[in-house]
């Protein structure tokens, strides 16, 4: 029989502790840690997201004996923006490798952009002992990426209220029956000097990273061929980014 008190303790979400690391070009990266175990998992979010996309999962993984580390990529969330707006993929890879170096052979769990960064980082620098790629393959379905970019471009003037942002997300994800709570949405938005709410990422990323995503596919396929650790691919049934064809090519 399981002791009720022990069971309750095991599922109580641990409090996160904020850590800040400075990248070699001076950009400050925001990192949140859950748990104190030696075995570590680094969670990398998708393009236009923040570390908070992984918080519920990080809680669950930490409660099962791992140290969970969630990261805001540069230009996202509470991490710094480049003053010149000059973002390059290599900067994101270097950041991830630097963060991984703070822990002993962590596992990487990366969604979308985070998974691709993990592929390149592992091929070049071997910082991880395993990779979990969430809804991404080295080559992807362009229509799915274009839909994401279209949503990100759709509200340049921001939102007047949390309710307006919630409605925009619901229209973008009509298959989800439950809307994000106002509290969760508030964590993804920042209020500008004009009083309007905008997504918590540097809009210049759209021109520097998103508009050039197809150019990286050859390098990503080459990186995938050089992966030397166990890798797990997880994809949702309704994904429009990963398909049977892109999975077969990846395998």
Q: Main sheet, how many strands, which sense, barrel?
A: 7 strands, mixed
Structural class: alpha/beta
Shape field: globular
Low-confidence stretches: 1-14
Please state roughly what percent of the residues sit in beta strands, choosing from under 5%, 5-15%, 15-25%, 25-35%, 35-45% or over 45%. 15-25%
Mean pLDDT: 88
- List the secondary-structure elements in sequence, H or E: HEEEHEHEHEHHHEEHHEH
Report the C-alpha radius of gyration, rounded: 18 Å
Read across the widest sheet, the strand sequence of neighbours is: 1-2-4-3-5-6-9
Structural overview:
The protein is of the alpha/beta class. Helix content is 36%, strand content 17%. It has ten helices and nine strands. The strands form two sheets. A seven-stranded mixed beta sheet has the order 1-2-4-3-5-6-9, sandwiched between helices. A two-stranded antiparallel ribbon has the order 7-8. α4 (113-125) links the parallel β5 and β6. The chain is globular, with a radius of gyration of 18 Å. The model is unreliable at 1-14 (pLDDT under 50).
Short synopsis of the structure:
This protein is α/β, with parallel strands linked by helices and 251 residues long. It has helices at residues 4-11, 55-63, 89-100, 113-125, 142-153, 162-172, 182-187, 205-208, 217-225, 244-250, and strands spanning 17-22, 28-34, 40-44, 67-71, 107-111, 130-134, 189-191, 197-199, 231-234.
């Amino acid at each position: 029989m399981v002791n009720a008190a022990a069971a309750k303790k095991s599922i109580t979400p641990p409090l996160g502790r904020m850590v800040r690391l400075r990248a070699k070009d001076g950009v400050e990266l925001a990192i949140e840690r859950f748990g104190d175990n030696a075995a570590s998992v680094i969670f990398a979010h998708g393009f236009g997201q923040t570390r908070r996309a992984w918080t519920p999962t990080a809680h669950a993984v930490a409660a099962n004996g791992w140290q969970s580390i969630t990261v805001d990529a540069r230009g996202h969330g509470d991490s710094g923006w480049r003053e010149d707006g000059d973002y390059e993929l290599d900067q994101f890879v270097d950041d991830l490798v630097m963060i991984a170096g703070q822990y002993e052979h962590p596992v990487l769990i990366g969604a979308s952009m985070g998974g691709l960064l993990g592929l390149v980082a592992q091929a070049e620098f071997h910082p991880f002992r395993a990779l979990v790629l969430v809804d991404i393959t080295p080559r992807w379905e362009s229509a799915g990426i274009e839909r994401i970019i279209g949503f990100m471009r759709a509200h340049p003037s921001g939102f007047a209220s949390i309710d307006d942002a919630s409605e925009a997300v619901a229209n973008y994800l009509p298959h989800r029956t439950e809307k994000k709570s106002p509290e969760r949405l508030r964590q993804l938005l920042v209020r500008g000097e004009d009083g309007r709410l905008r997504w918590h990422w540097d809009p210049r990323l759209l021109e520097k990273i998103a508009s050039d995503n197809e150019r990286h596919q050859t390098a990503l396929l080459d990186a995938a061929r050089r992966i030397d650790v166990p890798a797990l691919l997880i994809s949702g049934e309704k994904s429009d980014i990963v398909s049977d064809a892109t999975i077969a090519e990846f395998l």
